[in-house]
Design goal:
The protein is mostly helical and 115 residues long. It has 6 helices and no strands.
């Protein structure tokens, strides 16, 4: 996920601006949701072909900015709560592997309680 050097850079960026005071876990979670919604707007009302064209245009940078915003807020939240995001993702993969065994779900989009 975010490399430790980059994490330290964004933490220092926030600290230099004294923004920690605004970054409660609740407000960071809200900010993640808002930025994820802005990410969705990039795709809203567009066909797959239109999205492909946008990805090859200068509008791609807008998508990258929204992805970065989500990643930064998620990094702040994980940091502030003492959660190693890499460990959390690795643990979730293990849980999902048990919940979604290959022999039951390969090539299917069913939820675990639907097969």
């Amino acid at each position: 996920m975010i490399k430790s050097e980059l994490l330290q850079k964004i933490i220092e960026f926030r600290r230099e601006r004294d923004w920690e005071q605004f970054h409660s876990p609740k407000d960071l979670a809200i900010s993640i949701s808002i930025e994820a919604s802005e990410l969705l707007e990039w795709f809203q009302w567009r066909t797959d072909d239109e999205i492909t064209k946008q990805l090859a245009s200068d509008k791609r940078e807008l998508l990258e900015d929204e992805i970065a915003d989500v990643a930064v807020y998620l990094s702040y939240l994980s940091h502030d709560l003492g959660i190693d995001i890499n460990e959390a993702v690795a643990a979730k993969i293990e849980k999902n592997a048990a919940k979604y065994p290959i022999d039951k779900v390969k090539g299917r989009a069913d939820k675990y309680n639907e097969y």
